[in-house]
Amino acid sequence: MAVHAACKRFGQQLGGVQGPGLTRFGAVSSVSRRRQLDCREMSQLVKSNGRRLFLVDTLALVRRLEAQGVPSQQAEAITAAVTDVLNDSLENVSQSFVSKPEMQKVEMAQESNLSKFKSEVQNSQ
To answer: Where is the protein localized (predicted)?
Structure first.
């Protein structure tokens, strides 16, 4: 929704295409392909396992590739691939670490076990 609104604002600022020319995700439909404003995906939030979000500015990446002479479709495919690789890499990194709440649970369990052990030792003496 925010991407679509940003794309509409972008189109209004340039006096360009808005409304029926824009698809639901902010991409320009084939009807208005000639007046395309590069509103494919202004930016993309990628969910990693539904838990983490990170922002990927896909429009900027596509534009940089196109500025280097990469055809539009290839630039979009490369951007999608890079986004997927980033998603997978961040997922792998996130599996290597423990969140703070999870660590606090483990610490509490260890403290509880330690106090039980201490009380058992004191009772046995």
So the answer is: Membrane; Mitochondrion
